[in-house]
Amino acid sequence: MQANNRPQYWRILKTLIKTSFIAELEFRANIAMKIFNDFIWYFVQVSVFEVLYLHTSQISGWGLGKIRVFLGCLFLADTINMMFYHENLEQLSERIRKGELDLVLAKPVNSQFMMSFFRLHPSYLLNFIFCFAWLLHSLHLEMGAVSIGVIFKILIMILCSNVVMYSLRFMVATSAIVLGRAENLAQIWYSLFRMSLRPDFVYPPWLRYVLLFLLPLGFIASVPAHVVLGIRPDYWVLIALSISVLFFTMASIFWHTLLRKYTSVSS
Amino acid sequence: MRAYADLALRTQLEYRFNAFADWCLNPLISTVVELAMWWTMFQAMGVATLGGYTREYYLSYATWALFFSRISANWMYEFRMMQEVESGSINAILARPVSFYEFYLGQFLGYKFFTAVFSLWLPAVISMVMGGTTDLARLPVSVLLVFVYLVFTYNLTFCVVSFAFRLTKVSSFTVTKNFFIWLASGELFPLDLLPTSLKTLSMYLPFASACYLPVGFLTHRLGWEEMARGFTVTLLWSCIVGGLAMILWRRGLREYTGTGA
């Protein structure tokens, strides 16, 4: 009987997707622009490397073909981020400041879940399909036929990359509980996130280690690209899984620790 | 206007860690990352020059590009202004004996002035330590160009915000605009790396004044002639976009119906 009283997160998520989609349809021009924006973002990222490779044929042994695979991993990871938690974490500091967390804490569901997935963007499915096609096409050009095993590896690595990205960003955003306003902390996140927009070989070795194990931004796109291209052995999938579980646990502990310090802001 | 600039500083200092992150932490992290990236990239490519310029030039460029792009960026006030229109809280400002344009322009320029003053320490220290091609005597002229650009970008913001009267949610317009500026201003990479035709085109747009021109002038890549053209182009575009903003704003206000007590 008790098990039936526990919240069913899958059903909640389905309802959130449905309500978010209805809310999105209210401002159709805005959705179209958001999707278009992401395509512009892809264009900007691609153009950075296309311009650089006008002046050189390789960087650390990576030609343009491998870079396109890297970009495919990056775009795919980013699309999931945009679809599920980007907006929620961006507004988290403001929602905490305005006292919306109080309402969430009063509900019989996990507060971290509700704050992270309150508003979803199912319309980004179009971008997901595009990015997946881009990645498969780039892989096909670089490695020939793409096997089911490689597709399976892509899916696991992208899942891990999103867990890592979510956990890091969540920890930055939730600092608003103690700091009050954390708009500029979000800017720090973007500065850090910029490091994941380039393959890790463009950084010096010390920074590369930081990006792999201390602040694992390298797991967002660089490690997935290395694994999918076969540059790093398959056991890196297990490392990615371990890192993502570790950081997700850290994010949950961080949230619950901060909640203990939280004093309600609304009346 | 001075009072609004003062308001901007006080608002920023309300949350001190937030201000510290904006003026110290964020510039420090992004500068270290960019410098490390260009340094290693040159090693990884195994070349002495890229697009005809040395590693030292790119390092100086990366250091100052981040400083100028931080001053010239305008997303924070743009989102706030949109929010005012979207939520209807603009009514309170419209009822005051000041214009909405002045109210936010004062805050925006004030905030940018303090951002420039408080975050200058980092590129100045790096330039002094690393040497390179930076000529600090040229800094005032570069900063002046960026402040002229700020008027242009504020007018552009006003155009975007005016659309909120009709479409309500226009935040995605800002993102589109900022992506374009990111690329066309030279923040991502020096415009020297672009193919010649695109580079020539970008010199007739005002966005180069946000980053490429002031940094190029400061690092002795560009001379007085290019700067004079930069001032002219930016002022011209500022007038055009300002006129457009005025028309769009008046039209938007005519269609707007404010409600609430």
What can you tell me about this protein's structure?
- The complex is a heterodimer of chains A (about 270) and B (about 260).
- Chain A is an all-alpha fold and about 270 residues long.
- Chain A has helices at about 1-5, 10-25, 30-50, 65-85, 85-95, 100-105, 110-115, 125-145, 150-175, 175-180, 185-195, 205-215, 220-230, 235-260.
- In chain A, helix 4 packs across helix 9 and helix 4 crosses helix 13.
- Chain B has about 260 residues and is mainly α.
- Helices cover about 75% and strands about 0% of the residues of chain B.
- Chain B has helices at about 1-15, 15-45, 55-70, 75-85, 90-95, 100-120, 120-130, 140-165, 170-185, 195-205, 210-220, 225-255; strands at about 50, 55.
- Chain B has a two-stranded antiparallel sheet with strand order 1-2.
- In chain B, helix 8 runs parallel beside helix 12 (about 225-255).
